[in-house]
Amino acid sequence: MNIPGDVRYTKEHEWVRVNGDVAEIGITDYAQGELGDVVFVELPESGDAVKQMEAFGTIEAVKAVSELFSPIDGTVEEINGLIEEDAGVVNRDPYGDGWMIKVKMSDASQIDSLLTADQYKELVEE
Amino acid sequence: MPYIPNSEEDQKKMLETIGVSNISDLFAPIPANLRVSGDLPLPEALTEPEVTRHLEELAAKNRSTRLSFIGGGIYNHFVPPVVWTLAMRPEFATAYTPYQAEVAQGTLQIIYEFQSHVCRLTGMDVANASMYDGATAMTEAALLAVSHTKRNKILVSETINPHYRDVLKSTIIGLPYEIITIPEKDGLTDFDILTKTIDDSSACVILGQPNFFGYLEDLDVAAKAIHEAGGLFVMVADPISLGILKTPAEYDADIFVGEGQSLGIPQNFGGPLLGLFACKKEFIRKLPGRLAARTTDVDGKPGFVLTLQTREQHIRRDKATSNICTNEALCATAATIYMSLMGKQGIPRVARLSVERSHYLAEKIKTLGDFATWQSHPFFKEFVVDCPVAASDIVAEAAKEDIGAGIDLGRFFPGFEKRLLLAVTEINTIEDCDRLVDFLARRFTGKPSRKAVV
Fold first, then answer.
1. Count of CB atoms within 10 A of residue B28's CB?
2. Taking all residues of chain B, what is their mean pLDDT, rounded to a whole number?
3. Which of A60, A77, A80, B22 could form a disulfide with A40 if both were Cys (CB 3.0 to 4.6 A apart)?
4. Residue B29 pLDDT more than 60?
């Protein structure tokens, strides 16, 4: 299982990668493995507000669906159009091409409250 | 023979297992005054011949509805006997909703065929496996619209079936949505008010074609207005009318809903009914209800599955697109048989006959001095008559002569007490129409009608 050290994690299995005041958000390798083949991801639109630990979208596998939770507060700047054409990219490259949204953070300090790679590893190995 | 054997010995064993000495102990927590003591107040059991005779006597009390002009959403179209001969085969009649979907290939196939027929009839991209009735289908369409647009206002014309509007109203109780009823004007939706009411908080506009009075509305104007405002256009239509009228797809409807009872299901005093629901492909993930699809198995053989189930409440729980997770399978089966039997020739022919006969009746009624048609708008198979007396009196008097003389509109619209809603289908012959006209002339004008011209 891939748990890279350059991102922070939520207990709901999202990851967030910070570039300046923009946060790139996706789901973890563990999450995509548990869901199985992802068939559809419902994402917000650019300009929509997201709030920490509130749902910003849903992810659908063949026989399961779950909500996507935002790790931080902010405004959606960009969504990954690739997912609409090919949701399987979330399975193949969850930390790369499978990213979901980019959010302009309104409170960058919220990042500190998120799990580190080590803490997340502990969580999923429980 | 009992379905599950429950012998004295079984009972004893069960009681022993749970440590109770007799069955009545199980009811001890219920206060004695709430329990029935002694036998239930039922008549003595009858023998089989006695039961048969009793049922025959009850059946003999039924009044014939052959001469009926009662519509209002449920119509007296001809049901070819082959429809129910096939639909009542045990494979169809006893099959329940396919929980273990893929083992019920036959059930899935007929759902798939039903959906395909509905799509062909309406021109829409995708249809579901059916809903309870037209009213619930319309309500689900409104819920899809508010969910998709994230807007909270549902605009519905007063010319939509009042029962449908009631179901919509009771369904959204407690939800943060608002229903705005666009008033009726001279038998049609008041389009001035409609276009002024539409704004960027309108989730959808719901209009009927034909409307509840049978009249045809100018849906193009409404579709354009709501689309320009970013809302959805929901069209309620009579499926039989689609044989000759513009389809929902041609009106650019986002969602089509309708009552499918006309498609091979008897009137049955008002039910069971069959809700039709179809929409554009872009709303497929918000579609309520079940959806069957055709696919190929691992060996490349064709087969059927229930698809996009993550919309449904057995997976998505409280976030499901709808709380309806079943369908009207038997009625949908009958409708599928009806549609495949009637086909591209049959349905337009039924529609044309309904138009011809209803217009014949309307013209005849106009010759009765004291009666008039309410409006001169184009209509399909139903129209409104202005009467010299209360419509309820006409309905009551006609019933005594075994004539179903339509619906008293005063029941639904204050001030419409002298208006009668009449429906005419291919089942009503010219002679039937003449009989109704003679009745009206004889009882309510004092002068006999002119001899019928066939």
1. 10
2. 93
3. A60
4. yes
Q: Are B279 and B254 in contact (CB under 8 A)?
A: yes
Cis bond leading into B98, ω under 30°?
no
Please provide residue B218's backbone torsions phi and psi, each rounded to the nearest 5 degrees: -90, 80
pTM of the complete model: 0.85
- What number of other Cβ atoms are within 10 A of residue B282's Cβ? 11
Helices (H), B61-211: 81-87, 90-93, 105-122, 134-149, 162-171, 191-197
Interface list for B 283-322 with A (CB within 8 A) = 285, 309-310, 315-316, 319
Rg (CA), chain A: 13
Q: What amino acid is encoded at B226 in this protein? A: I
Q: Tell me the per-residue pLDDT of B155-190, one tens digit each, with 9 for 90 and over.
A: 999 999 999 999 999 999 999 999 999 999 999 999
Flag if A65 and B316 touch (Cβ within 8 Å). yes
CB contact at 8 A, B357 and B425 = yes
Is the Cβ–Cβ distance between B430 and B422 less than 8 Å? no
Q: What is the DSSP letter of B131?
A: B
